[in-house]
Amino acid sequence: MKLNSKIITLGAILSVSLPVLAYQGLIENRLIEGQAMVSTKQALQKREPAGLRAAAELGLRKFVAELNEGEDPNSIPSNYPFSVESISQMKQATLDFAFEVFTTNPNNISNSSAPFDRMLAGTGNWKVIVMVDKKPVGLIDLVSENGKWEVRSAGAAKTAEKVAALAKSHSGGDAFRFVRIHAASADFLETKANSGEFKYVPLSSDTTLIGLSKNALNEKEETREKSSSEVLTQLKAAVARSSKSNNQ
């Protein structure tokens, strides 16, 4: 009976210890993920131009105050630029990391033989992710006028969600660039693999102009990383179609 008691006791200890160890492992993994995200945000904030964050904080408060003026705080007006359940939630809004918008002109896409990543240049315009309850609810766009940063527009909640999610898996300040090609109505997140190869994740809500049918593709395919050559081929076709349409 003593042996059985020991076996039962050992079994009881194991039954308690294993869940505890599993829980500790879960906590440790979350701490590691949190530390990686903090380092990513810190690295990204180091890239921000001087005065950008302070202007974004002030601009967001002013923008939201004007937007919400005269509105029921428990309501959500149509076409509200932030993805919240009521406008009162915007009182809790905070800013996450900022990122510059990169682009290239249609002539480069159509005629240049350079790799796509070398065609891109910074526009000087920046976007900042707006958070409520630790969730991305939209972006604010900032431009510099006469040496001062100003908030010009807001919205694009789905883009904010995608950028925030992808940033978690691409740590480091130089791990990604936000790319906007106006001639093709296309947005991408450019990432760099360990091999040094550049990859591009489509972010556009409307992917038709770059040859991707929303109806024909599932969500996994729409967000699949694409090579530089694959993206450039699609963009060349989109720019050609856009040019032909404009000339008609």
TrEMBL record:
It comes from the Bacteria. This is Uncharacterized protein.
